[in-house]
Protein 1
Amino acid sequence: MDAIVATGLTGAALAALAWWWSRRRRPLRTGADARVPEGDAPSPTKVAQPAADWAHALLELSLGAVTAEGAAPAHDDAIAAAARSLERFASEPGRLPRRPQLLPQLLGALNDDASSAAQLAAVVSRDPALAANLLKLANSALYRVYPAPVGSLERAVTLVGMQGMRQLVALALMQPVMHTEGGAFGRLPDLVWEHTQYATLALREHARRPGVDAFAAQLLVLLQGLGAIVVVQALRDEHARRGLAALPLPAVAQLLQAWAPRIGRVVARNWDLPARTWQSLEDSGAGSELARVVDTACAAGARALGAMREADAPGNVAPLALAAS
């Protein structure tokens, strides 16, 4: 019964937040084009719809309304330099974030239908820092299911079940890797992390489509979030070199939107993911059902995050998705 109630709450909350957020969104303003990966460049006659443009939403939350006003040539130079830096990641894997130590074992357990939540908790317990991070997430306003605090991994297993543990473990594993300072971009890295959490929650609804690997979808969202952090780091460093203040430029949003998934896949190639997981990611190219699910979840996550931020009540977030299922 708790699972049914929590699942219903997830869908209702996300639907309500999507409607509310769509009513207040401002239209995307166009500006100087950012350099984007070959094959991903938008048509010059088309502008991405704001509802699907999660990068636009995060930049707006971080720095204000997205506009080309106030941009100087130095800003264009900084964005172009960041794009060149990102292009080098494929040939310089040593610059990528380091793979979490327990990733192979945890991904094997997470992707094994025969694994139990207790077995997963046993793997997590080998790393005290990871276990503490997981419990912190389980007790956060976004994931807490019951008023009583979750004090142990065993208690977490009882409350959230295998599906919930998969979600929590993956998030807890990636959170330290995604931590970075925003510099001129302020709280944008924190917003990327929050958006990643909301998007993974949205996947509980959208990944139920036939033929969709729910775990691969979650991993794609996490890797895209990590890719977004790398993009923010590149932008931050190039702005710092020039002593520039960050502006909410359309070109910044376009660079973030285009390069985050690309960098996420570069990370996946260099982290030696299990064969089944890697095959699912390889099959998730543009236009695939898995890619559509991820895009939909990321858009829903951006709307939900925007609504919660607008309400300015992060401590009152409902426990949306982790009841046992």
Protein 2
Amino acid sequence: MRMFENVKMALSSLYTHKMRSILTMIGIVIGVSSVIAVVAIGQGGEAMLKAQFSGEENIREIYYEPSEEEIESNPEALSKSTFSEEDIRTIENISEVQRVIKSSTKNSHLRYYEAETNGNIRGISEGYIEVNQLKIAFGRNFINEDFFGGNRSVIVSESFRERLFNGNEMLGEVLYIGSQPVKIVGILEKGNSLFGMHQDIIYLPLKTWQNIFASSEISEVSIQAETPEALQTAGDKAVETLNRVHDKEGAYQIFNMEEIGGLIEDVTNIMTIVIGSIAGVSLIVGGIGVMNIMLVSVTERTREIGIRMSLGATRREILAQFLVESIILTLFGGLFGMLIGVGGAMLVSYFAGWPSLISLPVIVGGIVFSMCIGVIFGILPANKAAKMDPVKALGHE
């Protein structure tokens, strides 16, 4: 019952001095909202990074890393063709491998009438578009006739339409890769990745790419397993087989996405903690503001405290009264900060194009911490009120 009375008196006091209460809460609101928003945006950025680097769970890329001795004896070892068609057939014969996706990339001169630029030309095999989660905005995807017939069809990124075609319609148009004409059949959706991945690239069937560049090289290979659980076994068997066939020791490897994901998580966690700690300083500043206002409130209500004590209120009850008022003040600040923080995180994520992962523990922790600020910085004013001499307090003007 006494607690209810303390809450009622605290709300009455805060309502009586509305403007002062609002100004006092601003530091708490900024601190809580900043921490919640920073953590949510950081976790959303982390999720986006992991998605960009890892892709689907049952896809992994195989790469070739020449030894130092091989590089010293042949400086071109890093740039030479990494995989052969025989290598691809060897990987496809592994039972756990469902599909092998291959590609090759070169930078080349591009021309459309008088407009010219340079860009990455990537030859891809079937399944590349789907596996890498590229989406067609206009036109069509590649079909079997494109892959097996060597059709000179290409899919271009939205950035090329803006740069080479000034944003004009380009489906069905012919552009030149070097001196070789190709026809645009599709346009990709604009990428929303953190690093602009899949930007400024022209995709064409691998067979067409090999004809245009007079090369049979395959520089990138990814494998897809039936299930994510079978992927590790498929990857291990693939690199083991390639190393054995080429008489290499660990030259062929598979990207460890778990390690990359762990590294991304570590980096984003450190950044979130650092930025969140800076934002949390405003909570301390807000707490000091609460303490100052509560000290002013105690001074203003000295006579009220004396009257309550003369009517039988104990020091503990006076302490509780002002402590509850301080806690309620910071609680309201925490609640308003939560609303602003969640709203701000969602707004930033909307415009940035990545998810905002609102963390319930962080929200609860922020509100609880704001209440703790109320306790810590409310103790001094409450203790000052509780230790007043009733006689002197009654005589205070």
Protein 3
Amino acid sequence: MTASHPGSTVNPSTPGRNMQPPGATVAASPRHCMGTPPLGGSCLVCRLRETLPGTDLVHDVRPHSWPAHSAIYQQGQSLGRVHAVCAGLGALQQTSPHGGDRTLRLIEPGDVIGLEGLTGRVAQSQAIALTTTHTCCMRIDLLLATARHTPWLAAELHALWLRALTRADFVIAGLSTGPARARVARLLAHLCDLSGPSHVPDLSRHDMASLMALTTETVSRTMAALQREGAVQSRGALLICRPDVLKMASELD
């Protein structure tokens, strides 16, 4: 799997420089995050364009589209850019020294990933697109320089750090404890809140298992049981869910 190098894009005026990271396609419009379908919404870049038009930071923003299961960046990679997530769903995955993979948290619209790069650290985990995902990437040096004299942006970066911690807490407390049925129901209920009960992405059972610290077989059996009970219906790449049934299932001990 080939990942982009967030720091590989430099001055947009550099002649002959390829600005497209491997594995991604350049979005058709830099405003792609406006008016997006479910699993989409306003991102940090939208607010920057509205409040700081014409700045070097906004001028250098690069929108990209990532196919499902492509790597946005790799664990241990030097981060020269952060990615504002405009639409889609992803996950941060970490590989242990023993070779095991674990999903740390979901990546959702409105998130900014690669924030550890603000402190000069390399990527602490791998960012993977679970569905087709749209991001706008920003140079870290320009982001930090702008934040120094833009109080609301500095406050927003702090809020994004807290949001990332909340995402991780949800995985630890909500998706990694309790019976498998309750964990799966909590995940589906959360996706319902994000996209609506009729547009829930049908994630691979492997991805769901990694997120909930379960086996793929356990997730498959649990999903089959929920479908038999009418809590979930499959419709192509989407699921139609009944939030009331999922809520009851998520509360089981």
Protein 4
Amino acid sequence: MGIADMFYGRSAKARERRAAKVRNKYADAPGMTPELLEPLAQSADMPSRDRVALYLEAVPAGAEPRRVLHGAKVYTGTSYVGVLFDSGLTMRWGGYGGIRGTELEVHGADLPFGGMQKVEIFSHEGDDGILVSGSDGTNDYSIGCLGFDPQDVQEFAQATVAARDQFVQPASPDINIDSSLPPEQQLAALEQMRSLGAIPEDLYAATAAKIRASSH
């Protein structure tokens, strides 16, 4: 075992000791469940309380995390958490502004696999992390998350790419609008379906454009 392996605690015994500490320390944290605790226990570093708070904020009710990446930019006091799910990646970051005990400032992004285009790893000024790029259908994005162990960062990126490649995009719903109606009424019916959440935004935009084009 090399020096880096010892420093990052990569051995089976080190990982199990760390997992036991995580379970003992955070099993009773508000909002924590056994299903949420285990992925955190298997992560590559002992999480701080702010990273645990970010992790719990990043997991929607009923969701099952596959893997967790977390790290911190020490000189800014900012913590980062990335959570991998079957359908995408959720990132949260924030800090206490240097004053312990105040409310944690949380920022974040939910990145479904449908719009995810590229997952890269980076190392800059001692920080290692992943950089995820893609589009939400309207705007392009490029968002990063720091980790602790460079090897774990690479494995998390690989797991994200593998999950994205295995993800099957749900089929778009059929849109049934009476084409004999005037374009204004067709657009009104389409807008109602959109307001009810019955169609995704990209399909709404494409159908609305088609209706408008047909009226000219």
